[in-house]
UniProtKB/TrEMBL annotation, chain A:
This is 3-oxoacyl-[acyl-carrier-protein] synthase 1. It is an enzyme of class 2 (transferase). PROSITE patterns: KS3_2. Keywords: Acyltransferase, Cytoplasm, Transferase. Residues 2-421 form the Ketosynthase family 3 (KS3) domain. CDD domains: KAS_I_II. Belongs to the thiolase-like superfamily. Beta-ketoacyl-ACP synthases family. The lineage of its organism: Bacteria, Pseudomonadati, Bacteroidota, Flavobacteriia, Flavobacteriales.
TrEMBL record, chain B:
This is Phosphopantetheine-binding protein. SUPFAM superfamilies: ACP-like (SSF47336). It comes from the Bacteria. PROSITE patterns: CARRIER. It comes from Winogradskyella vincentii. The lineage of its organism: Bacteria, Pseudomonadati, Bacteroidota, Flavobacteriia, Flavobacteriales. It holds the Pfam family PP-binding.
Amino acid sequence: MKQRVVITGLGVVAPNGVGLTDFTKALKNGTSGIRFHQDLKDLKFSCQIGGIPQITDDLKSKYFTDLQLRGFNSSGILYGCIAGMDAWKDAGFDLNPNSELDYDTGLIFGTGTSGVEKFREAIHKLDEGNVRRLGSTVVLQTMASGISAYLGGMLGFGNQVTTNSSACTTGTEALLMGYERIKYGKAKRMLVGSCSDHGPYIWGGFDAMRVMTYKHNDSPTEGSQPMSASASGFVPGSGAGALVLESLESALERGATIYAEVLGGEINSGGQRQGGTLTAPNPEAVQRCIKNALHNSGIDSSEIEVINGHLTATSKDTLEIENWTKALQRQGKNFPFINSTKSLVGHCLAAAGAIECVASIIQLKEQFIAPNVNCEDLHSGIEELVSPEKIPHKKIDLEFDTIAKASFGFGDVNACVLFKRFIA
Amino acid sequence: MNKEELIAKLKTIIAPYIQDEKAFKNLSEDTDFVKDLKINSANLVDIILDIEDEFNIRLENEDMEKMLDVKSAMSIVTSKLAD
């Protein structure tokens, strides 16, 4: 029997809010988490602004032991562990380092690359002929699955514990992989999410590709402009999002708070054919991904009321909107509301999918649509497809049941998921 | 440096890594790093590096293999300091 899957816990570490309460407030108020960073300027970056979650040493010591923090230099793992532990606690579980091993719970927590600053430290020592001085912490912080290794041990999970990686699709893919594991009865609960490091060593390659904006170094909060005519590239971000997925049966049995139901979704690739490349999407595959997500969720395109898009603030935004209109066969006034969380947090890369899934669930649970900031000058190509009122600049309170979330990534990979409000 | 001073210094170095407070309190020359103090074996290399820094000595792989308890650590450090 296929299990229904619901969301029973959320955790988030975002540039504009650490923890559910602050992040929700920031979403409602349209608070930007984008700031100027002197180190980027010193290193001669074109784009000198970015989104970095504000984590104090005090907060760190609430989640990590002194020993764990010794020689610790992996911001992605830091964000991922905080978000993951918060989500687990939010789902009603204790954070007990000596908890009984839980074979019914697993974890799929993705990242793009892990511990780049730690890796840099190691490379310097190694090149000086000092490999023997690296210590014990390099491997665990720089292996891709560092985040799932840390979290799995902190929470004592005994089901599948792994890390996925699919560029900016990573978080949404992790969610769908965890969803399937529960749906097919392989696990009762899956903690899913993704995280990304911050800083020059992770962002530098994108700066070199000239895909980040260099026009807003003096006005950071105005830098991230998805869907705007003046969009000039994305603003890099970082952080983590985490969600506890659970079989409906288990959630009801525990009397857990249910945020929403995961109706289903789809993951595919455009194969870098038909216009798709390493960096650009194959439109047909994107549309197919959305259509199959609807089909797998057993709903009609007319039922989608809100979309949380991928929408990064590059020239590809218009193409994404066009793909949505074609996949849903809806345009103009008939198009759902759509927003991009990236206008507030930047493009959090591997963490984007998870942070934005959390944002989608918060909006669904609290019945509002977060504002799209910095797109007062809507791109004309988008305006031809969608009525401007469907792209709100201010928060809208709205009763709605269904939200679609999609993420797309380098390598021509796509993921789309449908969430539905759960009313017991 | 006498024995007590050496033990005191080693104690400060290993303090961050121990997982058994009681065994640490009762630390003696016979205390085993992994069996008694429950130190994660991966952390033994970090302790070696910290010892190198503290005493300004260099420990080789062979020294490392022998350094499993307080007594062996003391004897290796003492002999390196005498070199």
